[in-house]
Amino acid sequence: MTARQSIFGAKDPFALTRAWMAEAEKSELNDPNAMAVATVDETGMPNVRIVLLKSIEDDAFVFYTNYESRKAREIGLSGKIAFVLHWKSLRRQVRVRGTAEREDGAPADAYYASRALDSRLGAWASRQSRPLGSREELMADVEAARAEHGANPSRPPFWGGFRIRPTEFEFWADGAFRLHDRERWTQGFTFNVWEKERLYP
Ligand SMILES: Cc1cc2nc3c(=O)[nH]c(=O)nc-3n(C[C@H](O)[C@H](O)[C@H](O)COP(=O)(O)O)c2cc1C
User: Fold this and answer.
1) What is the CATH number of the domain that holds 195?
2) Is the distance from the beta carbon of residue 31 to the nearest atom of ligand 1 less than 6 Å?
3) Gap between the Cα atoms of 155 and 6, Å rounded
4) Predicted confidence band of residue 3 (pLDDT cuts 50, 70, 90)
5) Domain containing residue 84
6) What are residue 92's DSSP bridge partners?
7) Whose CA is nearest to atom 3 of ligand 1?
8) Is 70 in the pocket of ligand 1 (CB under 6 A)?
9) Cα–Cα distance between 110 and 104 in angstroms, integer?
């Protein structure tokens, strides 16, 4: 196997994403797990924003957010999602398309509990994506959340995860003279059996 092929070598696309993420953790300046997540509104108008990818499971990806945010509303409308991870230091990207469902059980509680107290209070205070008068108003909301929920706040019912179940992946690695390597993995008829094909750059 050449060095070039070996960066694409993995038993499935989740393992490959994990392997590339492990490399990115060593080389990226910050937030190697930052991904651009795309949704569409009721008119089909797309929307994209960065969130942090918090876990790569054997058949899914999980990130956390506010369930009253614009992205959550749009996921609720379509059930569909796409994201891209791009690592400048590696000159690689991973594109994923699939469906998303809420993760508001034990893993969400555990992740919430692992966060810094002020982040947990911030989740209570932020009415994400709604208009806000000033920074002072936000800080006052955080102090109100501190007074109400104390040192050990429970996870807000309006805050939790989304679990993304991919139907398609594309792995892209930069090549000389724009002759990049691209591999698309798609799910066959059997759950979690993946077929892969090479694409022109
Ligand atoms: C590096 C970075 C990481 C972010 N991580 C998250 C995140 O994990 N969850 C989240 O809800 N927003 C995160 N944000 C903020 C979102 O980009 C966005 O502003 C917010 O979620 C509201 O998006 P919406 O109005 O489309 O729902 C992050 C932003 C940046 C730049």
Assistant:
1) 2.30.110.10
2) yes
3) 42
4) low
5) 3-116+157-199
6) 87, 173
7) 51
8) yes
9) 10
